[in-house]
Structure formats: structure tokens, C-alpha cells
UniProtKB/TrEMBL annotation:
<feature type="coiled-coil region">
    <location>
        <begin position="183"/>
        <end position="217"/>
    </location>
</feature>
<dbReference type="Pfam" id="PF04508">
    <property type="entry name" value="Pox_A_type_inc"/>
</dbReference>
<feature type="coiled-coil region">
    <location>
        <begin position="53"/>
        <end position="152"/>
    </location>
</feature>
<keyword id="KW-0175">Coiled coil</keyword>
<dbReference type="InterPro" id="IPR038827">
    <property type="entry name" value="CCDC152"/>
</dbReference>
<dbReference type="GO" id="GO:0016032">
    <property type="term" value="P:viral process"/>
</dbReference>
<protein>
    <submittedName>
        <fullName>Coiled-coil domain-containing protein 152</fullName>
    </submittedName>
</protein>
<dbReference type="InterPro" id="IPR007596">
    <property type="entry name" value="Pox_A_type_inc"/>
</dbReference>
Length: 224
């Protein structure tokens, strides 16, 4: 974007210089027109003088030569003005074409960059969606494993509790300690599994938020 701004500034400076040159030429045109008016007035005056002093042949011839000289000078000035205006118009057209070409190139470059960024965002969102899908599958698997493990421990606990209760018929106070140990082990396992599932859920939530932010940014760029 800095390079683009620099090029635009350079083109603006060149157009400003061309505009300044046009103003100078217009000022010259005004000056030449005023000079032409003066020359026309002088010619008219000289012609009147020639007509008035026609009996003075020598002076009359000189006045005629002066009139001819001024006419030639007027023609020369008019032609020079026309040539300068034509040259200036040609230069302005060339600058305008160069500016159009440069702006078209800059637009194409920016369009390619936007399209490239669009592709990158699409790939990123696709990867994030796959990652979220995999994590969801992993979460479901872990939840299933957790339920199976809890069920297995319950069965194991019930089996050992039944054995302990069978033995406790001879030793009534021996069942309290094993029951407490099994309950603590079961509770600890449930807490660990819950932490793992919560961590996975947080990861999935974070990825979904990032994916939504990427989509929002993409829509914002499209609007502009």
C-alpha cells in the first residue's frame, strides 16, 4: 500500500506540473492576445498614417515595411502559441494514459492480493473446521470411555463390595475401609475425566470463536 501511495503521489506531482505549465501557457496566451490587440491597433494607426502621408513616398514605404514586419511577427506569435498549446495537449494526453495504465496495474495487483488472501482464509477455515470435527469426535470418544470406565469401576466396586460383605459376616468392621477407598478412587477418576472433557470443550470453543472471527473479517473485506 505504501508503494501504491508513492506511485500515486508521483503521478499527482507530474499532473500538477503539467497543470502549472498549462496555466503559464494560458497566461502567455493572454499576453499574446493583448500584444496582438496592441499590434492591431498599431497597424491600424500606421495604416492611417500611411494614408495620411501618402505624399511622403519614402516615409510611406518605411511604414509599409513596418506594417509588414508587424504582420509577420503577429503570424509568428500566433503560430508559436498554437504549437505550444498542441504540444501541451499532447503531453497531457500522454500523462493521462500513463496514469490510467499505472492505476489499472495497481488495481490488478491489489485484486490478486485480495484473491490470494481469500484462498488463504478458505484453507485456514477448512483446517479449523476439520480440527474442530476431530476434537468433537475425540470428545465423544472420551465421554464414551469415561462412561465405560465408570461402569467398569462400579461393577468392580460392586463385586468387591459383595465379596467384602460376604467376608464381613465373620469380620463386621472390615468392610468400611475398602468401601471408602473404592469411592475415593471412583471420585478421583470421574474428576480427571471431567477435567479432560472440559479442556477439550474449551479448545473446541476457542477454535469455533477463531473460525467465526475469520469469517467476519472475510465478509468485512468483501463489503469494502
Amino acid at each position: 500500500m505504501i508503494e501504491t501511495a508513492g506511485k500515486n503521489n508521483l503521478l499527482d506531482i507530474q499532473l500538477e506540473k503539467t497543470s502549472s505549465l498549462l496555466k503559464i501557457m494560458q497566461a502567455k496566451e493572454t499576453s499574446m492576445k493583448e500584444e496582438c490587440i496592441i499590434l492591431h491597433t498599431m497597424i491600424k494607426g500606421l495604416q492611417q498614417t500611411v494614408q495620411y502621408q501618402h505624399n511622403l513616398k519614402g516615409e510611406n514605404e518605411q511604414l509599409k515595411r513596418n506594417v509588414d514586419f508587424m504582420k509577420e511577427k503577429l503570424k509568428s506569435n500566433e503560430q508559436e502559441y498554437k504549437n505550444n498549446i498542441a504540444k501541451l495537449i499532447s503531453e497531457m494526453k500522454i500523462k493521462e494514459e500513463e496514469h490510467k495504465t499505472e492505476m489499472s496495474k495497481l488495481y490488478q495487483d491489489m485484486q490478486r492480493k485480495v484473491e490470494l488472501n481469500e484462498e488463504k482464509h478458505k484453507e485456514l477455515m477448512a483446517r479449523k473446521e476439520v480440527e474442530i470435527s476431530e476434537l468433537n469426535a475425540k470428545l465423544r470418544t472420551q465421554e464414551k470411555e469415561k462412561q465405560n470406565e465408570i461402569l467398569r469401576l462400579h461393577l468392580e466396586f460392586d463385586t468387591k463390595l459383595a465379596r467384602a460383605q460376604t467376608k464381613s459376616k465373620s469380620y463386621p468392621d472390615t468392610t468400611i475401609l475398602p468401601q471408602s477407598i473404592y469411592r475415593r478412587k471412583l471420585q478421583h477418576l470421574q474428576e480427571e475425566k471431567s477435567k479432560e472433557i472440559a479442556s477439550l470443550q474449551n479448545t473446541i470453543r476457542d477454535l469455533e470463536q477463531r473460525l467465526a472471527a475469520c469469517k467476519d473479517n472475510r465478509l468485512t473485506r468483501r463489503r469494502f
